[in-house]
């Protein structure tokens, strides 16, 4: 695995620490994350990242002590507590309590700056976060858990899904009161109809492909953050939800007009996992693909 600058212990795990899973986005179009299992007690570990890091303690029952830029704090953590570490801050910490599973999520700083400017009309000259050793936010906790669920679960457009989750994480982080180091204001608009038609045509022509959020934003001629917000305001759903719906509609049409196998149709419509295809199809049509074909032939 490529070394994470400032997190060298990720490549040389200290005794007792286990890496359970991770996703490293070298393109930096979405977050990177690492899920570790900590033992009952750790040695003091040192971190420093050019990106802000938000961590979710999945099953915490113990005490963490942390030094950020020379100031020590301690807190008793419980399940689904969160920790926020600013970019560029030297952080020394250690844990003692029950064995702990923790997911560390790295937020690409360039995405933060873009969304801060596009969504909040903010200046990125001093954009960073205040350190928070312990806080509770059910929405953020669910967003971070969705990263785990999105890995290797057969989603038909994983890049678009990851980028959409990333956008929601960043918008939620920037909207939390008292965490950012710069002032903000909000504004909004919806996608012009002629641009929406161009994007929808692009999606329809590539329904079975792994289309990313950046691809769609490029078609619209605006930034990813502007596109995601304006598309949702115009259509009432995210680009990923729309793409998924179009894939299911195309699959339904093929089930009634072709003799191809259900597995072939699923693959043609962008579903690599037949069980994911069947579950998604059933949610829309309330029957499985085989029953749908039988009733409509």
From TrEMBL:
SUPFAM superfamilies, A to Z: Homeodomain-like (SSF46689), Regulatory protein AraC (SSF51215)
Residues covered by the HTH araC/xylS-type domain: 197-295
Protein name: Helix-turn-helix transcriptional regulator
Pfam families reported in the protein's UniProt record: HTH_18
Regions that span the bilayer: none
Superkingdom of origin: Bacteria
InterPro entries assigned to the protein according to its UniProt record, in alphabetical order: AraC_XylS_family_regulators, Homeodomain-like_sf, HTH-like, HTH_AraC, Tscrpt_reg_AraC-type_HTH
GO molecular function: DNA-binding transcription factor activity; sequence-specific DNA binding
Keyword hit for Transcription regulation: yes
This protein's UniProt keywords: DNA-binding, Transcription, Transcription regulation
Organism: Kineobactrum salinum
